[in-house]
From TrEMBL, chains A, B:
Gene Ontology molecular function terms on file: metal ion binding; molybdopterin molybdotransferase activity
Cofactor needs: Mg(2+)
Protein's UniProt name: Molybdopterin molybdenumtransferase
Record-linked SMART domains: MoCF_biosynth
Keywords tagged on the record: Magnesium, Metal-binding, Molybdenum, Molybdenum cofactor biosynthesis, Transferase
The EC number(s) this enzyme carries: 2.10.1.1
Annotated GO biological process: Mo-molybdopterin cofactor biosynthetic process
Class in the EC hierarchy, top level: transferase
Length: 419, 419
């Protein structure tokens, strides 16, 4: 008899997974290796930025009080007493109508409280004249204007992008406390699978899901433990999965989750005492995607069909792993775009169609990336987004605006915005 | 005297850079290391996909001719002769009203040309009945429906994302010919710069641009050669830059490109005989960004101000390096969003304001990421996009729709869509 499964909505499935995503530990890494990791602690300003009153221009540091009354008719003359570049401190304290020639980035000398830009002067040897008064702190980047000492600059949980690296460097973080990366194991199932280096045989295909998932993980900065192929035997499957969950935070399997005669995973989950969060989702492709959870380890049972496998990973595995690292933007970015092709068929379930998204000043457009059955592999290679057609809708026409999820952003977004 | 420079429009500056981006060589890498690289050769289907007529369901393989006339009132009975899973070939050739029980992914046995899904049958021991006729090839994934043998599946120049990995695996590419990564050297300038591990000193700041650029390069998969800090001496600068261009495809410097008294790079470019593509761009921040070119090597003279440095890299260095690898999507993705804050000031030049972009079913919104002077470092850490306010415009109000460039996409787009 074929087991009857009760499908649940995609959003409900996403929520069930995310509720189980417990945080991993943290570790310290050198700044040079911190790009792409998730901050385990906030970045705190260890000093004000800039750390001193700073000249943002090439010019002359003056006392604003000496500039009072300057005009085109009544120019005021200053005498240059010193000349400093960035990184240099002038030992001179400004007296009346004295100035220090100063370059961008240098600290104001003692007594100075304004910067006259070079182009605001007429220079004559060691003197120059100005023709307008300057207010206190005019043309000055005051100490602390960018950041105050003790201020939280970046919150814990943030993705470490290049700008975060810049503030870490500014504040002298030679080492950074980041979330450890979840340990993810990968088990393929399917007696039809050949390795990439094997010649094709009748009835067989090469395992493309394994390398694909390894790359999906690598895109997130996560290495994948290749744990081999599950044998065509339920007891052996059980033992391999049991061993995998001991060493991994998440075990991904491809194939074997359906209700076919050789799909052993459902009974393996049962024997492991795993809680099956769902085993049928109202979506195409990937409706058989199963997620289970046991001893703090996720079991992601993805479809063996390439397109379905890809969708299952991006919708469930990716956000769970990101959330485990403490990041609060685990979801694929949402946008809208205008369809450039008809989708005549009705959609009983949510459909995720691999597609090519383009945004231009004339609008945002999306077209299917080719052949889009669940077993397609070529359309995965061509797309950069999913068209999402909600379940319960009739067909869509060219020109209709549709929901889109973008694939391949280094950072995600905070919430799942679809049903 | 202060040198007068003639600023050119951003688009013109981008074009001048891109015209000089010559392709680098290619190399072979193992499939496991190919993610994130650029294909140097197209991916060609070495066999049809699927490679055989394939069952997309769990069910029974039958001869469609035997199903003619089946109805609820006149069910037709079949006898099951064999039972195969994926990867298995049945040795049985179907005779009249014979069937083979078949699982998803298995090849159709000889004689069969249709699949009856399990749920379309009533099973009784070794027989089952059907109540509707099946057309030839009904419920069959025919050989080659996804890809024909010899078809170009992915063009040369494509970014190798996980879907490309899947097709490479499918077609048995254990090694992949990819573009070599450009060799990029980084030289900091500025006597005010401390290393990240040094304690703060009066008048000095830590070098944040170096680690930031290294991370911007790492985001593109490119390692950066840290070539040190340029000394405060023109001859020594000349010698260091000259050495750098011999070993690098691109040399990035930060600071020292302005017209200040300690800015030696303009004269270094002259002594090298480099062609200066531009040294002033109509943009804020980063108007002093300079790009020069000599002996097939780019010299990217980025501003020493962190925000300006970041912008200069993303607008000029990034697309040039991507284009050198033969990829045709080197530009930051464009989108539009509604401003959530006023920008009262007029914009004589194009402004690139580091900002936080969010797209939701209710619309796309963008807000500035905080303090946005060219010397700001904190706003770089907080944003994921640039607000682009065109030069020659008056202020913008909250609620206005503005141009946006997205930062941090793994892939870019094909064209520069802004002026």
């Amino acid at each position: 008899m074929v087991e009857k499964r009760k499908p649940i909505p995609v959003k409900e499935a996403v929520d069930r997974v995310m509720k189980r995503a417990a945080h991993v530990k943290s570790e310290s890494v050198p700044l040079e290796e911190a790009y792409g990791r998730i901050l385990a602690e906030p970045v705190i300003a260890s000093h004000p930025v800039p750390p001193f009153d700073r000249s943002p221009y090439d010019g002359f540091a003056v006392r604003s009080v000496d500039t009072k009354g300057a005009s085109g008719e009544s120019r005021i003359t200053f005498t240059v007493m010193d000349h400093i570049g960035a990184g240099t401190i002038s030992s001179h304290t400004l007296g009346e109508r004295e100035a220090v020639r100063i370059m961008t980035g240098a600290p104001l000398p003692a007594g100075a409280d304004a910067i006259v830009m070079l182009e605001q002067t007429v220079i004559d040897g060691q003197t120059f004249t100005i023709r307008k008064p300057f207010a206190p702190m005019e043309n000055v980047s005051p100490k602390g204007e960018d950041a105050k000492e003790g201020e939280v600059i970046v919150e814990a949980g943030a993705f470490i992008q290049p700008g975060v690296i810049a503030v870490l460097a500014t504040f002298g973080y030679t080492n950074v406390q980041v979330a450890t990366r979840p340990i993810v194991g990968l088990l393929a199932t399917g007696t039809e699978l050949l390795e990439v280096n094997e010649p094709l045989e009748p009835g067989k295909i090469r395992n493309s899901n394994g390398p694909m998932i390894a790359a999906q993980l690598k895109r997130m900065g996560i290495d994948c433990r290749l744990l081999g192929t599950l044998p065509d035997d339920e007891d052996a499957c059980f033992n391999m999965v049991k061993e995998a969950i001991h060493e991994c935070d998440a075990v991904i399997t491809t194939g074997g989750v359906s209700v076919g005669d050789f799909d052993y995973l459902p009974s393996v989950y049962k024997r492991l005492g795993a809680e099956v969060l769902f085993n049928k989702v109202m979506m195409r492709p990937g409706s058989v995607t199963t997620v289970a959870h046991v001893n703090d380890t996720f079991l992601f049972g993805l479809s063996g069909n390439p397109s379905a496998c890809f969708v299952g990973f991006e919708l469930f595995t990716r956000p769970a792993l990101i959330s485990m690292m403490g990041n609060d933007k685990p979801y694929l970015p949402y946008t809208k775009a205008v369809l450039t092709a008809d989708f005549a068929k009705a959609n009983p379930f949510n459909r995720f169609i691999r597609a090519i998204y383009e945004s231009t000043p004339k609008g945002s457009f999306i077209e299917p990336a080719g052949f889009n059955k669940s077993n397609s592999v070529t359309s995965i290679a061509r797309g950069n987004a999913f068209i999402v057609l909600p379940g319960g809708t009739r067909g869509f026409q060219k020109g209709d605006e549709v929901d889109v999820l973008l694939i391949g952003k280094e950072e995600g977004v905070e919430s799942w915005m679809l049903n």
